[in-house]
Amino acid sequence: MSAVTRAAVEAVLRQYTDPYLNQDPVSAGCVRAIEVQGDQVSVQLELGYAAGLFKNGWAQMLQMAIEGLDGVGAAKVDIHCVIAAHKAQAQIPGLANVKNVVAVASGKGGVGKSTTAANLALALAREGARVGILDADIYGPSQGVMFGIAEGTRPKIKDQKWFVPIESLGVEVMSMAFLTDENTPMVWRGPMVSGALLQLVTQTAWGDLDYLVIDMPPGTGDIQLTLAQKVPVAGSVIVTTPQDLALLDAKKGVEMFRKVNIPVLGVVENMAVHICSNCGHAEHLFGEGGGEKLATQYGVEVLASLPLSMSIREQADSGKPTVAAEPDGQIAMVYQELARHVGARIVLQEAAAPAMPTITVSDD
């Protein structure tokens, strides 16, 4: 029986690819310790993204692989998730108590952006992260309803200065809906809307959050520019449907984030296919492969493809989105995959972002 070496253990680890980092644990820099005592091997890995539902199975797979190495009697693999604060736009200070800000955006309304944002936040929390969600859709806030927060609920005020976010389903929630009447329209001009967004972001007493998900309003206007210039965003997620009209607007969203140097982490394709509940027939009501075309054109990935499902709508309307309502269901698992991919993409982004460009307006 040959003696076990660290190099031999590393060689085994290099044979397995983390499906979210797209690298083996050694190349990805996840190895924190390898100890060999006789025929006993102990390995400690550290993931930089939330992966609470994935890490145990990943550890077991690696453990079995190491135990197959000649000379190993038993192996133990421990995996911990340690989420760090990643750099966003240059020259923009970070938010107090918030490590990473993720913007969920769409070029047009009606593509399921808010539902995606809610389920992404819940999925990140279910993976073990500390998560908040900010409803930045000032004109049409909906996160209060989705998280089952009763109409008329108001946030507490801390030290006469800070809004205390309302916790629901394990996520800290803040929305303009908590500060206004549900039936009162927000008839505001752009500067007022931008000011309200900044107040919500900077004057909310967030807890120690690993991720703050921002549910953006649709389009590429004042709020998006304010976010890019004032809020440190680690990455954005573009939500679309396969429909050609939605894709046209989604392209504008991708281009906007690129112009303001916010990384596009990937695309989420909603309503990709409808499965008949009676006969099981699959039909692409809004077209097919649109998200893939968009992702290919801009060199990003399709992070998730979700069906047109009545249950997604019903669960969101009832105040308990899919990840909370059916955590072990097939659709919830797609959202969990989305959450892990988003966290991993943030880790993989370049450590430093270029300086903000100068935005000018001309008559051309």
Automatic annotation (TrEMBL):
Protein role: Binds and transfers iron-sulfur (Fe-S) clusters to target apoproteins. Can hydrolyze ATP.
Keywords: ATP-binding, Hydrolase, Iron, Iron-sulfur, Metal-binding, Nucleotide-binding
Any GO molecular function: ATP hydrolysis activity
Protein name from the UniProt record: Iron-sulfur cluster carrier protein
Keyword Iron-sulfur annotated: yes
CDD domains: Mrp_NBP35
Pfam families: FeS_assembly_P, ParA
Stretches that traverse the bilayer: none
UniProt keyword annotation of Ligase present: no
Family: Belongs to the Mrp/NBP35 ATP-binding proteins family.
Residues covered by the MIP18 family-like domain: 6-77
Complex and partners: Homodimer.
Listed InterPro entries: FSCA_dom_sf (IPR034904), MIP18-like (IPR002744), Mrp-like_CS (IPR000808), Mrp/NBP35_ATP-bd (IPR019591), NUBPL-like (IPR044304), P-loop_NTPase (IPR027417), YlxH/NBP35 (IPR033756)
